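#lab-general

N.A. 3:47 PM
ok so I finally got the sequence cleaned up, no stray characters, all 243 residues accounted for. can someone with queue access submit it? mine expired

B.Y. 3:52 PM
send it over

N.A. 3:53 PM
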Amino acid sequence: MKIEEGKYKCEPHTTVCDFDANGNLTLFAFLKFQQQAAEEQATMLGYGYDAMVSHGMAFLVNKSMNVIEQMPRYTDKFYINTWCAFKKGVRFYRMFEWFKPDGTPLAYGCNTYVLVSVDEHKPLRPSALYGELKDYPEYSSPALDYVPKMKADNMQSVGTYTVQYTDLDVNNHLNNARYANILQNNIPKECRENIIKSFAVDFVRELAVDSKVELMSVTENGSTIMEGVFDGITRFRGRVDYL
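B.Y. 4:20 PM
back already:
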């Protein structure tokens, strides 16, 4: 299968711990593999983590929107294409497309990032990025059509989650993929065997180790909407949609 210009093909290697009790890829693993694909291409283009930090800047993902046609199952082989799509305001848009070896589509993802300074974590304009990061806006994606409502008026507390040391990444805060773990582990028990058709996470504020997050949630109209609050401030919002 020919790879189009600007796209990078990643072949994730899964293990049994990447799948849930139903044999489906977990939402955590889903975001983890998209992180892997993005980091591999960024490094190849000269924008990997170490290179960015050496320039005093970093990309922070602030939203992930994902549409699933068929969630990968245990033992399934699959690939992920990713590419830099376009810039809008201060956000960089990166796309992902999941597919089987025969080309059958599995899922589509869209992550948005902001460029920040490493020392102060203040947003930087896209023009502050060193070099020239080429975009490929001509490639469309169903993930761009997924614009979910991330708030609800009638949410109730469903428990708390305390950030563990092993939840942290090299930036010393809760890794983005871990938010999907919190989301999936706190959907209603009666929804655990439902087929997930889409999900999204808004990364609003960073979380440090030992932060005890209150989880507010509601499940209605075929979706679970969740909000994580710490110290009176919303830290993330999540949504899972079921068939």
